[in-house]
Each structure stands twice: as C-alpha cells, then as structure tokens.
C-alpha cells in the first residue's frame, strides 16, 4: 500500500463540499504543532504532501490524500484534520471548524479510525480530552499516536505510554494500543503504516 504514491485529492472547508464516501478513511487529528504534517509526510513518504509549518492553526481545512493506483482494490484515504487548541484563532473561525469536524465525524460512515496525535513530551491535555470526548460521542474509533518520541528519554516514554493507556482505559471508542513515533528518527512509522493497511484490509 505504501509503495504506491500518495497524492493530494481535495481540501474541504464546508460539509457540503465533502466528496461522497468511497473505500476506507482514516484521519489524523491533534493539537496545532503536535507534528501532524511531519507524521503524514513521513508515513506516506511524500515530503510536501501535508504542509509542515511552525505557524500553528494554518491547516484549517480537511485535507484528503489517497494513493494513485489501487490495483482494483478499494481506495484508502488519509484525512488531515485541522489542528485544534490554537487560542489565537477568531471564535467564529473556531466555531466553523468545530462544526465541520463534528459533522464530518458523525456523518462519515467509512471513517474507520482517527489517529489522535499527542506530543510525547506533554501527554494528554485538556483540549485532547475534549477531542476524545467528541470522538466517543460520535462513536468513531480513535487511537493515540505519540509524536516527537525522540524528544523524551525511553523511561519517560514508557511511563507516558502506561499513563495514557490508563487514561483511555474506560473510554468507549478508544483503541487500546498506543503507537510511539518520531518523524525525525523514523520510529513507529512502519507501525502506523501497518495499522492503516490492516484497517484497509490490505
Ligand atoms: P503540525 O502543526 O501538527 O502539522 O506540526 P508540524 O508537522 O508542522 O511540526 C511542528 C514542529 O515540530 C516543526 O518544527 C517540526 O519540525 C517539529 N517536529 C515534528 N515532528 C517531529 C519529531 O518527530 N521530532 C522532533 N524533534 N520534532 C518534530
């Protein structure tokens, strides 16, 4: 699956712009600056696919990426969700994103999993918990992916993994496994790829 080239399909700012569901979708979500663009680029092997930037909140759309050639199989789409927790965005903009995201989460029958990215240095914060709550409400399975694992020492990472497993233990839509990644060092990328391939039935 990941030997094929991943390409940008479309950007969506409003619910009515959504393309009809086809094949399987997985989405990436997380706080602004968590390393979402870097991870999508690293996992797909396409450097410019998702924009990497130090300006939090720049990715305000749902961005859809897919592989060019499925060889007759159902396509898999990766959806890059807008980063959350960007306090400086105007309230009206935040409300518009929130509505789009909730509508998308609730109304997307082929959305099979949301990878919720969490910075390995910080762990789950208030707005991450709010996102998990929204996913539980929408009954969309989500899986925590720790980012920037290269920034913490192995014992601290181990501790965060067990704390996070405990924190999601009783959440109804949480997938119980956690993936630790570093886009910089390449850690965990194959695990993310394998997970997506498995979800897509490859
Ligand atoms: P996004 O806003 O969530 O899309 O985050 P970006 O992918 O733009 O990354 C935000 C910042 O974190 C950038 O300065 C990246 O270089 C840095 N970053 C992303 N992934 C990693 C990683 O795995 N390790 C380290 N050390 N830095 C990272």
Give a description of the structure:
The protein is of the alpha/beta class and 202 residues long. It has one domain: P-loop containing nucleotide triphosphate hydrolases (Rossmann fold, 3-Layer(aba) Sandwich). The protein is 32% helix and 21% strand. The chain has five helices and seven strands, in the order ββαββαβαβαβα. The protein has helices at residues 36-44, 91-107, 126-138, 154-168, 189-199; strands spanning 6-12, 24-30, 62-67, 76-80, 111-119, 142-147, 179-180. A seven-stranded mixed sheet has the order 1-3-4-2-5-6-7, with helices on both faces. Strand 5, helix 3 and strand 6 form a beta-alpha-beta unit. Helix 1 packs across helix 5 (189-199). The longest helix has 17 residues, at 91-107. The protein is globular and about 45 Å long. The mean pLDDT is 89. Guanosine-5'-diphosphate is lined by residues 30, 32-38, 52-54, 83, 147-148, 150-151, 182-184.
């Amino acid at each position: 699956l990941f030997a094929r080239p991943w390409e940008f399909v479309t950007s969506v700012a409003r619910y009515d712009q959504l393309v009809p569901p086809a094949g399987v979708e997985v989405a990436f979500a997380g706080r602004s600056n968590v390393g979402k663009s870097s991870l999508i680029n690293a996992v797909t092997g396409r450097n410019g696919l998702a924009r990497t930037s130090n300006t939090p909140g720049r990715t305000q759309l749902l961005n859809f990426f897919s592989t060019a050639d499925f060889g007759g199989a159902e396509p898999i789409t990766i959806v890059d969700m807008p980063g959350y927790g960007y306090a400086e965005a105007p309230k009206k903009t935040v409300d518009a994103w929130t509505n789009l995201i909730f509508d998308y989460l609730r109304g997307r029958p082929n959305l099979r999993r949301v990878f919720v990215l969490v910075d390995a240095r910080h762990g789950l914060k208030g707005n991450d918990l709010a996102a998990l709550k929204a996913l539980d409400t929408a009954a969309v399975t989500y899986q925590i992916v720790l980012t920037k694992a290269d920034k913490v020492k192995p014992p601290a990472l181990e501790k965060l993994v067990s704390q996070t497993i405990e924190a999601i233990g009783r959440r109804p839509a949480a997938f119980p496994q956690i993936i630790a990644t570093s886009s910089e060092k390449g850690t965990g990328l194959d695990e993310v790829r394998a997970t997506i391939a498995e979800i897509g039935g490859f």
